[in-house]
Amino acid sequence: MTGSQVVEIVVRGRLGHDLVAALDDFAVEEAPEGCTRVVGTIPDQARLIGLLEMLDQLHIEVVSVNPVPAREAL
């Protein structure tokens, strides 16, 4: 990943209010099948890896990580 990229991270389950508040730079919304979508701009690969590691440490299952095409970005 080079440069900023809008990314959608889909996780299993619902996120607590404290975690949603901590993700204030991201749009967080419920998705089908009991999942949650977290969408936001990731400035570089290190930030993406840091976010994924945080979710892992909180035992939140990541279902998918998807780039969001520019025309669909927030």
Describe the protein's architecture and organization.
- It is a single chain.
- The chain has 74 residues and is an alpha+beta fold.
- It has a single domain (5-72), classed as Alpha-Beta Plaits (2-Layer Sandwich).
- 26% of the residues lie in helices and 36% in strands.
- It contains 2 helices and 4 strands.
- It has helices spanning 17-22, 45-57, and strands at 5-12, 27-31, 35-42, 62-67.
- Strands 2-3-1-4 form a 4-stranded antiparallel beta sheet, covered by helices on one side.
- Strand 2 (27-31) and strand 3 form a beta hairpin.
Q: Write down the CATH class.
A: Alpha Beta
Tell the overall outline.
globular
What is CATH's topology name? Alpha-Beta Plaits
Rg over CA atoms = 12 Å
How many β-strand stretches?
A: 4
What is the chain-wise order of helices and strands? EHEEHE
The parts where pLDDT drops under 50 for at least 5 residues are none
How many helices in DSSP terms?
2
- End-to-end Cα distance: 19 Å
Average of pLDDT: 92
SS strand fraction: 35-45%
Going by helix content, strand content and strand pairing, the class is alpha+beta
Reported CATH architecture = 2-Layer Sandwich
Number of domains: 1
**Spatial strand arrangement across the major sheet:** 2-3-1-4
**How would a crystallographer describe the biggest sheet?**
4 strands, antiparallel
Amount of helix: 25-40%
